[in-house]
Amino acid sequence: METHMTGTDKLIAATPDHTSKPLWIWTKGILLPLLLAFTGIGLAYVPGFAEAGPLACAIVIAVGYRQVFGYPEELRPGIQFVGKKLLRVAIVLFGLKLNVAVIFDQGLGLLLRDAAVIGFSIGVMMIISRWLQADRGLSLLLGIGTGVCGAAAIAAVSPILKAKREETAMAIGLIALVGTVFAVGYTLLRPYLGLSAEAYGMWAGLSLHEIAHVALAGAPAGQDGLAMALLAKLGRVMLLVPLCFILMWWMRRREGADSGSKVDFPWFLLGFIAMSLFGSFVLGNLIVIPSVVLDHVSVVTSFLLTMAMAAMGLEVNLRDLRTKAMRPLVAMVMTSVLLTGLTYWMV
């Protein structure tokens, strides 16, 4: 018997069923960075890759995945959720690693040196990149990462600067690579420098890119040297917050007044500040949390950052960026060499 369909019936029959598909696709979009993050963590245990760390390993693997298999467009919602939302959650939790009280106890001198390092890195990077006619957006991200705290700083300022995700991922990958090379070089040079453990640690903390790089270079100097290295580095991390507000003001002046475009306020920075203050003045004083719990929070934070790096690595198309990244890379290496000399003189 022939079945007759009304216009409404035909419309319903022709409409695809989207009731369950988006959730499954969104979940798969999260699972891909999750698997890439686990792979990056595993690779970081392999000799020769340990110095680079899981963040760099994850982003390199994700970039390689993109070049071989292409970008999985249907998974874009979940991947972007990891690269944006989970990244900001990780940055908020990262605030627990910043002990503001210790930095204040050391006085203003160390903080002024940290501020000088940030200003020098960004300023010199932009001068050299202009001389080399390098991409200014990517160069600015690399200058901020060099001056402050590597991947975390780049990820924090990217929304403010309206950087493309592929530029952000490329900047993070480049700074992880160069920072690792410099950190290994510091450990090889240390016996020939004639610096005390504390002076060497301060030099490493003032000049190296990531906290992981500082820890890698400072460890051979012993407990005192490593403590000074991390202290100097944490001062630079703390200055990330005022730097973000300066960049917001600059973006409003550059774009807001002329084009009417709006610079979004990075609300996650308030969470970063709150967690820093909570960890510095509340934990251990008003609230006591077992150290094992804090260790687990630190592991979760690191894993979320690794997932976010993998998600951003998937955005990188090397065919588009291979010519774009070379000159900023050269500018960053030159800036890092000059920063190394300046901070050696400062200590």
Provide the descriptors you would attach to this structure in a database record.
globular, mainly alpha, 347 residues, disordered N terminus, single chain
Task: Give a summary of the structure in a few sentences.
By secondary structure, the protein is an all-alpha fold. The chain has helices at residues 7-14, 21-43, 53-69, 76-94, 100-105, 108-132, 136-147, 151-161, 165-189, 197-207, 211-218, 222-238, 240-259, 268-282, 291-313, 318-346. It has 16 helices and no strands.
Protein architecture, described:
With 347 residues, this protein is mainly alpha-helical. The protein has one domain. Helix content is 78%, strand content 0%. Helix 4 packs antiparallel against helix 15. The N terminus is likely disordered.
Topology:
Layout: H1 7-14, H2 21-43, H3 53-69, H4 76-94, H5 100-105, H6 108-132, H7 136-147, H8 151-161, H9 165-189, H10 197-207, H11 211-218, H12 222-238, H13 240-259, H14 268-282, H15 291-313, H16 318-346
Helix pairs in contact: 2-3, 2-4, 2-15, 3-9, 3-15, 4-14, 4-15, 6-7, 6-12, 6-16, 7-8, 7-9, 7-16, 8-9, 8-13, 9-11, 9-16, 10-11, 10-12, 10-16, 11-12
